[in-house]
Write a sequence for this structure.
C-alpha cells in the first residue's frame, strides 16, 4: 500500500498515512480519464448558438430575374445560401452537448486520477485545514510552506468551508472544493492536489 507524509499548514511533517491500494494505487486508465474530461467540458458548453436558414432570413421573396434569356444562372431567391446575406446551409441550432458516463467508468476515472497524483508525488495530505477568517494571505503562505509556489493547486476539504474557498479564490491557479464535489477534470488540471486527511478517509469509504 502507498504511504504518504501528513503535513500541517506550515509544511511540517506530523506523521504518515497508509493509503488504500484499491483507490490510490491502481494502474491509471488514461482512456477513461480522457472520457471524463471530455464529458466535463461538453457539459460546460451552453449550446445556445443559432444561425438562420434560408427560410428564416428576411427578404428574398421576389425572383431576382426571369428564368431564361439573361445569361445568368437561374435563381429563385436572393436569400439562397450562395447569395450575400443568404441563409446558412445546415445552420447550427441550440442543442445540448452533454452526454452520460456510466457509474463504473466514473468510479474508475476518479481512482485513476487519484492514483496518478500519488504516483507522480503531487499528492499532499494535510492533518487539518482551518482558517479563523477570510484571509487570502494565510492560504498563500500555506501554499508557499508546502512547496507549491506558483503552481496550480486544488485544495480539497472534508466539508464545505466558505472561508477556505473564498480565500483561495483570490489566488490565480488555485481552486478549493469539498470532497463530495471533487471531479477528475479539476484533479488533472491541477499540478498539486492538497487534501485534508479526513477527506482522504471519505474517498476510501466511497471508492474502496
Amino acid at each position: 500500500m502507498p504511504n504518504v507524509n501528513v503535513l500541517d499548514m506550515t509544511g511540517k511533517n506530523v506523521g504518515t498515512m497508509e493509503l488504500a491500494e484499491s483507490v490510490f494505487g491502481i494502474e491509471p486508465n488514461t482512456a477513461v480519464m480522457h472520457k471524463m474530461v471530455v464529458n466535463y467540458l461538453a457539459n460546460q458548453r451552453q449550446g445556445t448558438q443559432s444561425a438562420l436558414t434560408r427560410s428564416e432570413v428576411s427578404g428574398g421573396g421576389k425572383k431576382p430575374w426571369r428564368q431564361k434569356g439573361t445569361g445568368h444562372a437561374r435563381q429563385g431567391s436572393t436569400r439562397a445560401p450562395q447569395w450575400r446575406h443568404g441563409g446558412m446551409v445546415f445552420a447550427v441550432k441550440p442543442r445540448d452537448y452533454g452526454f452520460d458516463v456510466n457509474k463504473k467508468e466514473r468510479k474508475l476515472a476518479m481512482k485513476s486520477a487519484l492514483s496518478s497524483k500519488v504516483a507522480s508525488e503531487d499528492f499532499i495530505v494535510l492533518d487539518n485545514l482551518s482558517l479563523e477568517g477570510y484571509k487570502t494571505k494565510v492560504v498563500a503562505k500555506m501554499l508557499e510552506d508546502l512547496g507549491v509556489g506558483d503552481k496550480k493547486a486544488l485544495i480539497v476539504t472534508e466539508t464545505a468551508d466558505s472561508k477556505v474557498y473564498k480565500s483561495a479564490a483570490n489566488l490565480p491557479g488555485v481552486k478549493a472544493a469539498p470532497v463530495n464535489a471533487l471531479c477528475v477534470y479539476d484533479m488533472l488540471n491541477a499540478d498539486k492536489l492538497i487534501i485534508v486527511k479526513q477527506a482522504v478517509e471519505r474517498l476510501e469509504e466511497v471508492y474502496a
In short: The two ends are 13 Å apart (CA to CA). The chain has a mean pLDDT of 93. The chain has seven helices and six strands.
